[in-house]
Amino acid sequence: MSICSGVEPQAPRRFPIYRPHWHERPTQLLARDISSDTELDWIRIAKDDGEVIAAYEIEQNDTWNFSVLTLKVAQSYRNQGLGRWMLLHAVGLIESKGGRVVHAWCRSHRDFVIRAGFAEVAPDHYVMQLQPE
Question: Which of 6, 66, 110, 122 is most deeply packed, by most CB within 10 A?
Fold first, then answer.
């Protein structure tokens, strides 16, 4: 088994994803200040040994349209499937909130979002259509 950046590769589902508590705000990963508790309703994190290692933030645009605003994985945990696990978790959360269209804007990770099931609709703009069961 190889070691990547000092962290032994793990199955991404090993890291539970949940809404952060106030003291777990992922301000560094999301590169922004989180100033209210209600903002945390739209953020999810994954932790390893008490450290936040990945985070995403979504936004509701209207009744059916949501956006994945940010998805970040700590450098030493990349290329192990954790980003995909987080992105698909975001899609599931959006679906649970009644979303039918998921938007993502991405400049440098085109293949990543396309492999996750998004379609490119404009430069740097990707969309996933969700079908109600």
Answer: 66
